[in-house]
Amino acid sequence: MGAVTRNLSRMASEPADGGQGGSAAIDGLIDPEDPSATYVLEPDVVAPLVARIVTSHTAGDHRSLLPFTGAPLAAIPLSSVEDVADAVERARRAQRSWAHTTVAERAAVLLRFHDLVLERQSEVLDLLQMETGKSRRSAFEEVADIAQVTRHYGVRAGAYLADRRVGGMLPVLTRATVHRRPVGVVGAIAPWNYPLTLGLAEALPALVAGNAVVLKPDPQTSLTALWAAELLEEAGLPGDLFLVVAGGGDIGAALTGHVDHIAFTGSTATGRKVAAQAGERLIGTTLELGGKNPLYVAADAHVPSAAQGAVRACFSNSGQLCVSIERLILHEDIAEEFLDAFVPLVRGLTLGTALDYSVDMGSLTSQAQLDRVVAHVDDALAEGARVLAGGVHRADIGPFFYAPTVLDHVPPTADCAHEETFGPVVSVTRVPDDATAIRVMNDSEYGLSASIWTQDTARGRRLAAQVEAGAVNINDGYASAFGSVSAPMGGFKSSGQGRRHGREGIEALTEPQTIVVQRGVSRGLSFDTLYAQPGDRPSRLLTAAFSVMKKLRLP
Ligand code: NAD
After folding, report:
1. N or C: which end of the chain has fewer CB within 10 A?
2. Is the distance from CB of 91 to CB of 241 less than 8 angstroms?
3. Do 475 and 553 belong together in one domain?
4. Do 194 and 126 fall within a single domain?
């Protein structure tokens, strides 16, 4: 993998001209359809990674693109439906012995993986930028997330998975324990926007819980997933416990058709299909779906901090972030002061292709994302919205770049008022009071994440409790809740089902098994002895016992 770093470093040292502030930028638009176009990543760099894909090489290749220029990045051999079945079978065999290792042994793998990711972050930062077009700052968010999640489950998995004593049916006589067993093979389906974070979000707790994992990344971001597979092996994960299949929706559906739990991250539309298929098979699901996340600036907010926080919340990863803010809701008392601070900050963001930290915002990842952003902005303008910043395709930098955009006076009928844009576009709404703010925040089919800015945090918590969202950040845009990995993360309404992170995130990947021991059998204290009593005696004895238990407030 050092080879990838060397290769990318060489590219990064080529002269820059397109970006606004990137010292090490990638230059030149290349027609991806041109058969003579050569791949940006050399075959000897890509070969060891793609060799990890479970494929019989019968399904052809996917040509991934370098979003910064549109050049062909790498050829990714695709898996067939049969390959998926093979991968799950291999994973199932490996899982049988993995389940017999101790949690401490499995946690040690995660903690070694934690160190390797931090040590070798430059490799994956390059890969993440090359596959997604994101800025290095946004790429580092993924490394930071993996550090958080691996440390959390590496340290806490033992406690989460330990047998738990609970009250039995009858005190003293009934001893009940809840034991957690791995479900078997967990399938993970990930989108392209945060391929390291989202490729591993359920995989890491799944592995430490004793499962095997088969991951299907988006074909555009397969190399990042394969890099993670390589590092997990280096961290000591035995073979076949983390396998990668490559392909699109058909391969995702095939995976759902074989595994014991499906952890899906992606759009709500696809999530519904996955849920329906999983429902047929009666397997568990974790569904992390879309959002249309609001940020409310209350009248007493510290406006300069709110403006700064909103910039990061709206434009990190060019807005291609499930918890990204797409709706700014401003108390009318501070609305103009906020916009006077916010809009210049947005206009001042630097865009570019640099493989270093000199750029604020990178590219969109694909033509499809660009098309969606352009369509949403055009539609809003046609409906009477006004541009406060951006609103332009920045083809001068790269084919998929779009300026960070702030829209005012967006009518509720405009697509971007209610549909997820998943791009660098935010709309502004003014409200007269907190009650209206809450109503506007909740006026969405989604409920993933929200943000409230106020200097009165007690009031912030009271408002948060009225917001229909799985996570509410007070005086932060999005990262505090997502980064608090001890706490569950997921969506209300059409934003998902189930939770990742914390106890909930690992318990979802296990089967709780109740084991109950009835004591005193040899002394004639069994239920059979009780029910052998004549007439209504068993009922009377039990009725008396229940009354005493309630008096003692036994649970
Ligand atoms: P998508 O739903 O189009 O694709 C996601 C993944 O599902 C891809 O790997 C795709 O190949 C696969 N897929 C497609 N059809 C499938 C099927 N029928 N069965 C199984 N798998 C199938 O989403 P996308 O455009 O790649 O990602 C963007 C969306 O993801 C946005 O809506 C965003 O909000 C959401 N997202 C949610 C979270 C979260 O944690 N809630 C995080 C990131 C992204």
Report:
1. C
2. yes
3. no
4. yes
pLDDT of residue 299: 98
Same structural domain, 400 and 459: yes
234 within some domain: yes
Q: Which residue numbers in the chain have pLDDT < 70?
A: 1-33
> Structural domain of residue 191, as residue ranges?
78-288
Nearest to 406 by CA among 425, 383, 421: 425
Atom of ligand 1 at shortest range from CA of 274:
19
- Are both 132 and 221 inside the same structural domain? yes
Residue at 269: amino acid letter:
A
Measuring CA to CA, how many Å separate 157 from each of 228, 287, 412? 21, 22, 46
List of E strands, 455-550? 471-474, 492-493, 496-497, 510-518
Single out the residue in 488, 513, 535 at which a domain terminates: 488
Alpha carbon distance 379, 386 (integer Å): 11
Q: What atom in ligand 1 is closest to the CA of residue 496?
A: 41
- Report pLDDT for 536: 97
Look at residue 500 and tell me if it is in a domain.
no
State whether 233 and 300 are in the same domain: no
> Contact, 77 vs 61, CB < 8 A?
yes
* Token pair 């990042």 in the structure block, residue: 224
Write out residues with Cβ below 6 Å of ligand 1. 189-194, 198, 216, 218, 248-249, 252-253, 256, 265-267, 270, 273-274, 288-291, 322, 420, 422, 448, 491, 496
CATH number at residue 475: 3.40.309.10
Cβ 417 vs Cβ 311: under 8 Å:
no
What does residue 417 show for φ and ψ, rounded to 5 degrees?
A: -75, -25
Rounded-to-integer distance, Cα 311 and Cα 361, Å = 11
Q: What is the CATH number of the domain that holds 238?
A: 3.40.605.10
Q: Long-range pairs for 341-345 at CB < 8 Å and ≥24 separation?
A: 341/303, 341/304, 341/307, 341/308, 342/307, 342/310, 342/311, 342/406, 343/388, 343/389, 343/406, 345/307, 345/308, 345/311
∠ CA 303-304-309 to the nearest 5 degrees?
Answer: 95
Domain co-membership, 198 together with 248: yes
Q: For atom 35 of ligand 1, which residue has the closest CA? A: 266
First to last CA, the chain: 56
* 329 located within any domain: yes
Q: Which of 447, 470, 488 is a domain's end point?
A: 488
Under DSSP, the state recorded for 19 is S
* Shortest-distance Cα residue to atom 19 of ligand 1: 253
- pLDDT for 12 equals 42
Choose the catalytic residue: 141, 288, 419, 420. 288
Domain for residue 536, yes or no?
yes
> Do 417 and 352 share a structural domain?
yes
Q: In angstroms, rounded to a whole number, what is the distance separating the alpha carbons of residues 146 and 481? A: 15
pLDDT of residue 14: 41
Contact 235, 242 (CB under 8 A): no
Distance CA 397, CA 51 (A): 34
Q: What is the pLDDT of residue 32?
A: 65
- Farthest-apart Cα atoms in the chain, separation: 94
